[in-house]
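Sequence and fold
=================
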Amino acid sequence: MESYERRTLLDQARVWWDEPDQVTFYRSEVDSGPTPAEQLLLRALPTSGRVLDVGCGVGRIAFHLADRGYAVTGVDISEAMVDTARALAEQRGSTATFRQVEPLALPFTSGSFDAGFAGKVHCYVPSRAGRQEFLDEVGRVLRPGAPLLLVSYVVPNEQEADDALASDEQHQRAASRFRSLEPLDTFCGDRGYVHWFTPGSLREELADSPAFEIEEVREDTPGGVLRLVVLRRT
C-alpha cells in the first residue's frame, strides 16, 4: 500500500476512535472486564510483571490487570480514549497508566515489558506490510520470550467476504477513494478501515513475523468468529 494512503487510513482511524459515541460505548463496557474468551487468553500471562495493553481504549483490560497486581501501561492512538482512561484511573485509584501513541512507533525502550495484550487492534493497521511493522514494533518493546496475546475476528472464507463487500454500498463508496487496497480490506460505516482475516490468512500473516513465534491459536467457541492467539517473542 502506498505510504500516503496508509497515513490517510491511520488518520481516519484516529478521528473515528475520537468520536464521542465511540468513547461513550467503550466507557459503558469498562466495568465488565474481560470476556470469557479473553479470560482464557489471559491465562498465558506470566504471574507478574509489566504488561503493555495495545489499543487499550478506555482501560477495560488494563484496569482488570492492574487490579490483579500487574504494572500496566495502556496505549492508544485516540486522545479521547486515553483522556477518559486517565480520568477513570484517577477515579478508581488504579495504578494503570495510559499514553497516546503513534500506531507504529511506541515511545518505550526495547525490552520494556514482560507481556503484551492486543485485543482486536492489529486489524485496523492498513496493509500486510503495515501489520508486520506493527508486530515488529510491539515485539521490540517486549523482552525475549515474552508473550503477546492477540484477539482477532475472522470470516469463514475469502469468497463469502468478497461477496458481502461487493453488495455493501458504504464499503464501495469508501474504498473507491483508495487505489492500493488489498483483498479483504473493508470499511465500516463508510469510514473506519478494517482488514478481515480468514483463519488461514491470519495464521499465515502471524507466521511471517520475524519478531514472534506462534505458540497457540484457538477458537473462542467451536466455529466461532474469534481467534485467540498466543505469540512468543523470539
Notes: The chain has one domain: 3-156+192-233. The longest strand covers residues 212-219. The beta strands are 50-54, 71-76, 97-100, 115-119, 147-153, 185-188, 192-195, 212-219, 226-233. The mean pLDDT is 91.
